[in-house]
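Checklist before submission:
- one chain only
- standard amino acids only
- sequence pasted in full

Submission:
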Amino acid sequence: QVQLVESGGGLVQAGGSLRLSCAASGNIFNMNSMGWYRQAPGKQRELVAAITSGGSTNYADSVKGRFTISRDGARNTVYLQMNSLKPEDTAVYYCNAAVVVYDYWGQGTQVTVSS
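Returned file contents:
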């Protein structure tokens, strides 16, 4: 089992910044990647950004150049730095950990961007 604890969501004006954190614990020794997904009301959950155990990153086109995913291996924590936020970034953001063939999810943190 893997436990994921997220923090850092909130309300921000358009153009502002937020940083999300996700701390992983438990059976993380075979973790393939960690990432962030988001789900807006009435929409499907979508990938925002991911980082592999080797450090490779992947971003949704809509956030490229504005969001940066990074990790602190010593703390088993992944971060999502979100800059130049737009109202369309408003969603619940979920941390994801891919371990072998299993997916684990955090409880979600709300990000609201006002215009």
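Reviewer check: Residues 15 and 36 are 20 Å apart (CA to CA).
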